[in-house]
Design goal:
This protein is of the alpha+beta class. It is built from seven helices and eleven strands. Helix 1 crosses helix 3 and helix 4 crosses helix 5. It comes from Candidatus Desulfosporosinus infrequens.
Length: 251
């Protein structure tokens, strides 16, 4: 298997690498002086007293510094979240979260049903997803072999999410307990970013395990699956456009 750093760089190669959101325990002027080197600049910082990680948006990041940040991400010293391109992207992601008000720390039955429904739907459309556990929900990634206009990606995701919610409703569950966020989102490109595979969640400190139809993989197997998905499951642009045409024709 290729090095973990090279895998991350290749998988997310279509996303901008000159800016990132950093989630870390580090803070203070000394920390920032070490972080902001070689022209990197702090756009904003968000400190927390709740025990969660502090957040910093860094811009003007040179390539060697991004490599260092990704290496720290893999070493679980911080989390790196990347932003999406303004016009088009070669990947999209559904961030599916538990919107339950009384218990927001577990995977609820609605989520279990929803993740199976969205996997089946995307696979039937020829867009097999990479599903990564994230806290109380999942990140559902699809990677394309070339960039597609963000409006097409967004409209596709809206329809997939709507059909998934319909499946939840038809099975007697409340779809309001599931929250969808779309990446890229045509409404707010510059303010939202998404955590990359290969790190630990800020709240529950668990690794970003990959979910297969047979269940969650352990950390080593997740990296192996990640490499296999990158090599064999990247979706041709023509296949995505056929999926888009199919889902927009559905009643």
């Amino acid at each position: 298997m290729a090095s973990k750093l090279n895998l991350l760089k290749e998988f997310y190669s279509g996303l901008p690498k000159d800016s990132a959101k950093l989630e870390t325990n580090g803070y203070g002027f000394g920390f920032l002086s070490q972080l902001l080197t070689d022209g990197s600049r702090l756009e904003y910082g968000e400190l927390t007293l709740s025990g969660l990680l502090h957040k910093y948006k860094i811009v003007n990041i040179p390539q060697h510094r991004m490599d260092e940040l990704l290496a720290s991400h893999i070493a679980k010293e911080c989390n790196i979240c990347l932003y999406f391109n303004l016009k088009d992207n070669n990947m999209f992601c559904f961030n599916m979260d538990n919107n339950h008000k009384t218990n927001n720390t577990i995977v609820i039955p609605e989520m279990d049903l929803a993740i199976r429904a969205i996997r089946n739907q995307l696979s039937e459309l020829g867009c097999e997803p990479l599903i990564i556990a994230s806290g109380r929900g999942y990140h559902v990634w699809c990677r394309l072999d070339s960039a597609v206009d963000n409006n097409l990606l967004y409209q596709f995701m809206l329809r997939v999410a709507a059909k998934t919610m319909s499946t939840i409703h038809k099975n007697g569950y409340d779809y309001h307990n599931i929250k969808f966020n779309f990446y890229p989102d045509t409404r707010n490109y510059k303010v939202v970013s998404l955590r990359l595979f290969g790190s630990e969640h800020a709240k529950n400190k668990t690794f970003s395990f990959i979910l297969t139809p047979d269940g969650l993989l352990d950390e080593a197997a997740s990296w192996e699956y990640f490499a296999t998905y990158l090599r064999n499951k990247t979706i041709a642009e023509s296949k995505f456009k056929a999926a888009y045409a199919a889902i927009t024709k559905r009643p």
